[in-house]
Every structure is written in C-alpha cells, then in structure tokens.
Specification:
globular, disordered N terminus, mainly alpha, two-stranded parallel sheet, 15 helices, three-stranded antiparallel beta sheet, 7 strands
Length: 376
C-alpha cells in the first residue's frame, strides 16, 4: 500500500489535460487553464474534513479490532503482522509503488485505471458491506426472517471432492452487499468524490480492524521502515505524487477546496492517502488492545496515541500549506504516534510491560503448532 500526503491538486497546466478536465467537469476549457486559488474558508473546510475523516476509521477500527481479536468467527479473524513481515513491508511497498509509476509512464492511463476501477469495485463492495453490517443488523427488528445461505463450490466427485469455496451468509449480509453495490456502481459511473470516500473509509476501517501487529516492537519496525519509505519517495523523487494523482482508485480520501463555490460538483481536491491512516491506525489499535490487557479500566495509551495522531496530521497540513510543497505525512505521524505513548509509559513505569506485551495467537495457529509438535 502506498501512502500519499495531503496535497492540493491544481488544475492541469497543459491544454490537452485541461480539455480533458473540463470535459469531465463540464466547465469551460479556457478557464480550466487558469490555476485555481482556494479561498481561506475552502482550504480550512477541506483540511478540517480530511482530518475528521482520517480519525473516524482509526477510532472505530481500533474499537472493532478489540472485538475482532476475541472473535471465533473464521471470517473475521485478524491477519497478524510479524516483525519479519514489518521489515519486508517497505521494500514490497517500494517495488509496488515504482511498478505502478512505470505502468503509468509506459501504458495508457485510461486502460490501467479501468482495470483498477473494476478490481477496486469488487474489493470496495466487500469492504463497505463488512463495515456497515453491524449498523444494518441493528436496524432490522428481531422478528426479521434472517435466513442463512451457503455458497459452496467444489472440484471433483466422491472421495476426490475438494472444497474450493465455502461462504456462509444470511439475508442481512445480502442487504449490505446490495447497498454497497449501489455505491460501487455510482463510483464506477461517476467517479464521484463522495463514493470514493465511502470506499476509502471502508478500506481504512477494515485495515485498522483486521490487520494486527503482534507486539509494540513490530509496530516500531513497521512505522520506522515506512517513515524512511515515505520521506524518500516524496522528497527524493516525484514518484509518490505522480502515482497518487494518476491512480483513479479509492486509495485516498479527497475533499474539494472549491466546495463552497461549486457545491458537490467541485473538482479541486486536497487528498490524504489511506496509508497515512491505516499504518498509524494499526499501531494505535495495538495500544488500545494493550490498554485492555492491563485490565485497569483505562485507555491511557490509546487516547495518548490518538491525540498524537491528531497533532502529527495537523502539523503535516500546516507545514504543507506554509511551504506549498507535498509532505510525507509519516515524517510527522511516526515520531508523534510512537514518541508520545513511549514517554507516557516511561512516566508511568510501564515501558517494559508495554514492549513485553504480545498478541495472543489465534486458535487455528495454536492448533497448527500443536499438530506440528505431535508430528515431530
């Protein structure tokens, strides 16, 4: 997952790009060549909205991660990130980012984005359905006939039959999928920024909920590696910004700076990559689960890291706006999200306990390890 910093998208400067932009937005081509200058009110609204949207998946995703870690439902089991995974992640992310950059340079951007749109349509519908399922379930009355279904796909016959797909769902799940598909079709047809944000928020919340760091040390390795990754690809090259602006997929949250002037048809966006939400978010969620493990009925480390994230993101926006240059958000978020909780742990004398905290392995993993010992 690549992370893109919050940066205002200016109107294209070349005439062909301006013509394409004006065709999509229904505005005059000649006016599109004039660089848009956001009003102070529009800028404040855009950045404030991005900050608010970034906090939603972190807060609710962290809360849901606690329930997810205790869940026995195989469909909601979290994916645990180990220290080895964390060390390799920046390298894999760099390769993916540069590969996308080359694709956009060598091949038609239109066809690449068409394939990506179809791919993210499927992922977005599933992510949004999972996100809204608790809300939808609470809306239905207890008397609602919630019938169970099973989608089973096998290969072969008799004793050689092999199960390839076994998906269990119910009527409420179908309603969630239907509502999410409406948003998906809206996104495919219009590429509207609201549809983009609905999918983006769903991706971010699912990431924070379902991606679990196994301990604080792993979180420090992951955040440290991506700190270097973000700084290099933003300050060292134009790769990150190029991909972020070319990639027409809900991997970023956007909000128009000209909303007050143009309403919902606004087109001059400030944006924030999902990586700048999910990566710090899974570390903040880990600290919440650490708080729960202390059994002190407090959420000290969660709230500390949450406030630290707000501070880091506000600082990112302030510096970016002051110097009018794209900023790697993790440059400010990583020191804040790691440093603030560590200082609090030092003051409370719980630093050793924090770094010794280990996420419990899933039952399935434990069963596998036991079977391996028996085989030996």
């Amino acid at each position: 997952m690549s992370s893109a910093e919050p940066v205002p998208e200016s109107v294209p400067e070349s005439l062909p790009e301006a013509l394409n932009s004006s065709a999509g937005n229904g505005s005059d081509a000649l006016n599109a060549t004039v660089r848009f200058t956001a009003t102070p009110e529009g800028t404040a609204l855009a950045y404030g909205s991005l900050l608010f949207m970034a906090l939603l998946p972190i807060f609710f995703g962290a809360l849901r991660s606690v329930r997810c870690s205790k869940s026995k439902n195989g469909g909601e089991m979290p994916e645990t990130i180990t220290s080895r995974d964390a060390a390799r992640f920046p390298i894999i992310a760099s390769g993916t980012l540069f590969g996308l950059y080359l694709f956009f340079k060598l091949f038609s951007q239109e066809y690449i984005n068409l394939l990506l749109s179809l791919y993210f349509f499927v992922l977005g519908v599933l992510a949004l359905s999972h996100t809204i399922s608790p809300l939808i379930a609470s809306v239905f009355p207890a008397s609602f006939p919630n019938k169970p279904y099973q989608l089973l796909f096998t290969q072969g016959t008799g004793e050689n039959k092999e199960e390839i797909l076994n998906y269990e769902f119910d009527t409420k799940t179908l309603v969630c999928l239907l509502l999410s598909s409406v948003v998906g079709v809206w996104y495919l047809l219009k590429k509207h920024w609201i549809a983009n944000n609905l999918f983006g928020l769903a991706f971010a919340l699912n990431g924070v909920e379902l991606l679990h760091l196994n301990n604080v040390s792993t979180g420090c390795i992951l955040l440290g590696g991506l700190f270097v990754y973000d700084v290099f690809w933003v300050f060292g090259t134009n790769v990150m910004v190029t991909v972020a602006k070319s990639f027409e997929a809900p991997i970023k949250l956007v909000f128009p700076q000209d909303l007050l002037e143009k309403g919902l048809g606004a087109s001059n966006f400030a944006m924030l990559g999902l990586g700048d939400i999910v990566i710090p978010g899974i570390f903040i969620a880990l600290l919440l689960r650490f708080d729960v493990s202390l059994k002190k009925n407090t959420r000290t480390y969660f709230y500390t890291s949450f406030v630290a994230y707000i501070f880091g993101l506000v600082l990112t926006i302030f510096i970016m706006h002051t110097f009018k240059h794209a900023q790697p958000a993790l440059l400010y978020l990583v020191p804040a999200c790691v440093g603030f909780p560590v200082i609090v742990a030092l003051l409370k004398g719980e630093l050793t306990e924090m770094f010794r905290y280990e996420e419990e392995a899933s039952e399935e993993a434990g069963t596998d390890s036991e079977s391996e010992k028996k085989d030996q």
